[in-house]
Amino acid sequence: MFDFDATLPLMAVQFLLLAALLNVIFYKPLTKALDDRDNYIRTNNLEARERLAKAERLTKEYEQQLAEARRQSQATVAAAQAEAQKTTAQKIAEAQKEAQAQREQAALEIEQQKQEALRSLDQQVDALSRQILEKLLGPVLAK
What we know:
Layout lengths: L6 H131 L6
Subcellular location: Cellular thylakoid membrane; Endomembrane system
Family: Belongs to the ATPase B chain family.
Function: Component of the F(0) channel, it forms part of the peripheral stalk, linking F(1) to F(0). The b'-subunit is a diverged and duplicated form of b found in plants and photosynthetic bacteria.
């Protein structure tokens, strides 16, 4: 079946030369390209993980800052509301005191006017009484 003459070693040498030639021309550059691509992918993957971890850290930090800012703003709003209520209560109390003082002043003025009106009426009654007496009894007897 097989003939082992001089062609067999020649075929083996040709095969080895072809394998060496393919290795130098095709396999080494292809292997180098695959290795370079693998390194590039590995490097990019590592960088992407680092960036993702950094982005997650920053996100957590910003969320914490946002939560703190919200707490501070709520505290500020609550303090402002308390201050507004306090100020409103003070102003209402002042207005009530002022209204009470005005009522008391008005009551005093009304009382004074009433007393003046009564004195005036008394004087007018006295004057009218004298006039009536003078007309009835005469000017000499009325005194």
